[in-house]
């Protein structure tokens, strides 16, 4: 029933719908792929429901359904067969099993039960990119038909890069002219396609066919279009072409798409152009006999035009013609003799004449005459000579030396034998043979031509030098012509010397040796003598044996390397230490070594046992020099027991222990046998009678003969038996969450019943503090270490440990519980801060659409957070513009936030046209906090549109005619753009595009609408294509529109001709006539019309010999001549071209290979016209020895070229046999030298001997007789005899021996000559000897020197004169030179300086320590070579001594590096054992004297010097305003050691702090507020502001970095000063000099000031004109007294004043020019000096004018009284008194005081009388309190708090005084008094100058104040000098002081200037009073250029 209904649905609704029954048995129709039919389905659903009910009548079984149907699943095309690609899933509503099915494709199958879909056949996307199949799911219905649901689905096949690029329009073949320019296109139209859609952009490269071919350097590929689907380009020329150099290029084009690759061949032919000169062919050499007649043809030149395409005629011309021997025919090129030839007249010895000939082209009968039409070549002509020269040796005699035992085949070295016959041809052929009686040598080559090097080899060895008969051999070499008559010859002799090699080791006469010596034997005592022998000679033999001893203990003995005498080695204490010591070692098992070749050769070792006899010679010795022990007072014994032990190496000795000192009261006893020390009193140790805590005992160990003592230090200590006890077992405390760091939480305390260090308690937090708390380790105060957070941790359980100072330490623990009190200190906040939501524009009012989320970690419970909205809101309209004004106000009423829950609801209708996005500023308030805490956030509300309009396509599309037309040409490549589909929507955007049905030809980009081609479009297959596109919008609900795209194709020529076969083959005979048909080819073209008409052509080399017609028939061209021997085959390409226009023409080609078959048309030819060979008689027959090989060749092929050889004449006796196939000639019977010559004629015939063509040659064979015996030596009779000659023989010539030998051969074969073998030559002479070749007398030629050469190894040669082979016998002869003492010893050169030794020895090494050894060499032998050594210079201190026998240097004292680190001594080597040294005259080292050696002994350091500080106590100061890292001063410790032993590390052990006035430290600050660097630089580590005017006593430690890590301690006193504590000392020296002497200056100042002067700063001095004076220095100093308190500035100045004489008479302080207080004043503003001067000038002019008028008007009333003069003196006197200027004070300070008035003069004016009524008075003060006092008119409370500046202009009611022209902010003296009264300063209303409340500044500035300046604006620091103090000013301080004086000698004035009566009459202006104001300028680096002067 259901199936019937489903068929009904498919019939009326289409196959895209299926019938579905849900759980309620309601019917619906599910649309599969066509949404446009949904409405129709819905309309008929009721009818269908009725139909279904009608059909069924009852409730039916529900059909199954898919849950996963594989629709639109993607699978890759490279998925292997058998792989699973998907699993179908379905279910049955009744829960029954389901089965699956799949139809519509043969590529896939499905397992009916599991639903697994697998691939059964390979997938190919290019074949089909979408598989459309039907999957079914079927249930099982009992008693009825099963329900089957069919679902059509689409499976998308993904592309992979599995197709290689394909070349189009192949083959690629072209022809190009050789004159084409580089860069030109050679072959256009290289096109490729790739059917894959993936892969890289196609690349085409050139690749040569054969490695090394340069075709790809000549041509390249240029791309014009390259994509992953298509490539087009062309082949271009990269390098110039040359037809002559190469006319054909073949190469491959390789195309790749990143994964696949393809290739195609390219053929480029080069067309000839007329640009090549003539080219010579054939040989340019010729031979002519010198006796040839005139006119003889020498050679015929052949040249042709290099342009073979259109050649010109060529003519010839002689350019050079030496001696005019020849003439040349210009047309034929024939070269002939022009006159008789004379070979001897030529300069070339080889008879070669070089001619230069020119070949030139002619046109129209005349030479062209250009450089590219002429060629000049050299023609080489050899003039053949006649036979007139024999073969000659380059020497008459050769000598060679060869070591014995060389392997057979070794050539004689350095023989340099060369034989030459200057004749040519057969006249120069000669044989070489060797006459050797010994038969040990052979010569090669045996036959040579012209010239040859000859070598002689050892043929039958080995050679043995120890055999006297084999030490020298005399050989004879004979060179004789072989092919001439008569045969010319020459001979040479070779003397071969066999040299000895070290092939025998030394031999001892015993297998082992023993010896015995006493342990106390003195150095040099004979132990034994052991010698060996050696069969070799010279240094290889017994003479060259060197003896040595090795093994454990071998250093205890010396062995004379030459004699083998063994003695006791040098030792200062025989029987002890490093000497022989029976107790240490009774027996030495050593190895005795003998090595020949002077110690460099073979070695033989024998064992030697040396036994020592014992002596009682060792005292006992303690294992340690000092013992340490600790015992508790009251203990009965040591724990552990205390033992002292002494060792006595003597086994029979008994050691007895005793106490010999340190225990007068008998507290301890010692066991005499065991050495155990005990407490005498068994009740315990009683120390009550001793006032020390340690005892030093002296113990002695004695064995009766000797004794030894040691010290035992016994430390007595108290026991730490009490642990600390806390006052409480548990503490509790609470702390506020916001408590500041450092706040005290609690204090714990513990006590210890012990005393002293055992009772010192330290506290620490063990656990539970989490680094939030810290404890003072001494006081137990717990403080907050960092900010607490209640939300992180509310309670702490802190475990605190108290530890005492005892050993072992005792500890106790207590618990501190800390509760954190919460503070509401965190604001609430939104999570996240910006929250987003969206609503539809049709949402109804009252809808709740969002709830705000906020948190507050301090809030617990609900109701504490209140939400709200903070206006204004922000919004944007649909155009993106912000909403403003009334519209924004309307939006504010649109949303409401619930204050309790944070819910956001819609208050009124939403209007999206008004705004698309609204941002509310929301708040959350914690109302439980005081004050309330507020958090702010944003809520962004997006208003979503409702969709109303479907998309539309652009015209001409309309809903009624939904079509779009596209017209394109066929052949569009896959991936190409076809068109772009665009649609628009009025009220929304386009969501995407899709194809209604998948298309095989086109692909659509769903997002952009771009349509691309999927497969090639072919007009011939389908001229028109259509597809349907649907566009969807983004609205809700989604709307769509469709269009049909009609694609019309245009026909193009896109088909290439196709040949019927990929390649063709054919054959043609080389003599075939023209017109012969070769083969027929066929091609077709699928295009229509003219595009399908085909024409044929041929391309390729030799294509001109063939033709092809329109039917494809290939024929041989008329007149074509084929020669197989020249060309065996022809490779052509048949090109088929269609009839399209040239720009669109397409072609293809197929290869055609034509084989040219052979015809027998060539004769064989021998390689030589004449052959010759020489053989020795009795040549072996089995196997036969080859004599010579003849060879011929035939240019034909196959059987026509198969040759067979035969002897046709000269083999009458059948003496020879010829191999018919190989042409090798063998002997057929034994050959004899009679007859000596054979002449054979040999024929070669083709076709395996049956052909019509043949060739002959002649072979001449010469048979040579044999030389059978070798010479045999008679004298010397021994194989290797030795003879002696004298060194330095006065006569020069000495007879050595007469050599004699015999030979059993007769004639020349038995004739013997004697030679010396030198290298490869047999000679008669060596540089030292001569051997008579006939008599055999060997004699010397010169005086011999044994030191130059002590032995001569000669090789005697006895050589017969045999032919063709001569033999020679060699015998070695050794000539020894007897020694004479004619050479002094000499030290060998060492390094750059001759005879120099460098040794090192560690300081403190014991006496007699070996330093090193020097060795000299004496070339003499035996006793003449014995060397003795002496110290002749540099040892006056007797620190060393020298072993004169062996050159060993020892120490003679204990050396100290710190006393002296190196020594230089001179050693002399001599043969004189009794050399006398003059003690009064040291020998000066002369590097030209080889007997002297200079020794440098460097003493290596040992860490034996403790460190010490340069000063035990240092003094320094630092400003209380200093920051972290401020430099304080340098400290320095020294260590006399060097390197790491002398390196030190600095550290601070304690930082004791003293309060001002305190004498006891309040404790050591931990961590220290100071740091010390490893170079001793002390700096601050913390801010100094908390230690104002405190003092630190730092304890610094310098510790060695190397063991034993000793330390040095020093103290550093550091005062934290304020500016008021310092004085400034001006020194008339530059800072660099002051720094060097600052300690001396400080010492003098300390002496005068009666305290300790501490230098705090050193700077450049600044002059009054603000310029830097680099020749003066400002030194800032403070002085401390005996109690380490800082002395006040006034007292310091007073003391310095009183010590003026001392200061000026001391060298380093004599140049002190001034001393001032260092305090400075705050400056508030700055006035331009030039502006102030201008104003002052105007005021002066104005006042002057008024004064002039007043004087004129009142002149008659003016009365000059005497009081006017007295007033002047009074004012001056008052000023003097005020300033303390008297005649008795120190002039050092007076100059500075007066200078102030001199500088002030220009700024003073006469003021009018003071009127108190015109000025204001400070609050609380009235004018009667201070009658006559000038009050600052600009007084204010703010100004009164500033530091005042003093204006010395004073006035009262009766007189005028001086005042500054500048506006005074300091006021007069009395205005200062008023200000001080207002501030409550001073008693009686007095105020000292420059004083503020609480301060005592003695000086105030005369100038106006300046604004604040940076710290860099002060006096500049000294470059390169880091002063040990902080700068005078910090930011906000001031650079300089302008001070006036209130008393004598810098003391604060005790009088009251404010109350002092003022003068009644105005004094005249004084020129001594002048003050100027200057501005301070700065450099770009912030350094001051001008600084106000300190005065």
Task: Characterize this entry briefly.
8% of the residues lie in helices and 38% in strands. It has 15 helices and 132 strands. Strands 31, 33, 35, 37, 38, 102, 105, 106, 109 and 110 form a ten-stranded mixed sheet that branches. Strands 21, 24, 27, 28 and 29 form a five-stranded mixed sheet that branches. Strands 67, 70, 71, 74 and 75 form a five-stranded mixed sheet that branches.
Secondary-structure topology with pairs:
Elements: H1 2-13, E1 17-21, E2 27-31, H2 38-56, E3 65-68, E4 73-76, E5 84-87, E6 89-91, E7 98-103, E8 108-110, E9 116-119, E10 130-139, E11 148-158, E12 166-168, E13 172-177, E14 185-193, E15 203-208, H3 215-218, E16 219-226, E17 230-237, E18 248-256, E19 261-271, E20 278-281, E21 285-289, E22 297-300, E23 302-305, E24 314-320, E25 326-328, E26 334-337, E27 352-363, E28 366-367, E29 374-384, E30 392-393, E31 397-403, E32 417-420, E33 429-436, E34 441-444, E35 447-449, E36 451-458, E37 471-481, E38 489-499, E39 507-508, E40 513-518, E41 526-529, E42 532-533, E43 546-550, E44 557-559, E45 565-568, E46 587-595, H4 596-599, E47 603-613, E48 621-622, E49 626-632, E50 642-643, E51 646-647, E52 656-661, E53 668-670, E54 676-679, E55 694-702, E56 707-717, E57 725-726, E58 730-736, E59 744-747, E60 750-751, E61 762-767, E62 773-775, E63 781-784, E64 795-803, E65 811-821, E66 829-830, E67 834-840, E68 848-851, E69 854-855, E70 865-869, E71 874-876, H5 885-892, E72 895-897, E73 903-906, E74 917-926, E75 933-944, ...
Parallel strand pairs: 4-11, 13-19, 21-29, 31-38, 33-110, 40-47, 49-56, 58-65, 67-75, 76-82, 84-91, 93-100, 102-110, 111-117, 119-126
Antiparallel strand pairs: 1-2, 3-6, 5-9, 7-10, 8-9, 10-11, 12-14, 14-17, 15-18, 16-17, 18-19, 20-23, 22-26, 24-27, 25-26, 27-28, 27-29, 30-32, 32-36, 33-35, 33-37, 34-36, 37-38, 37-110, 39-42, 41-45, 43-46, 44-45, 46-47, 48-51, 50-54, 52-55, 53-54, 55-56, 57-60, 59-63, 61-64, 62-63, 64-65, 66-69, ...
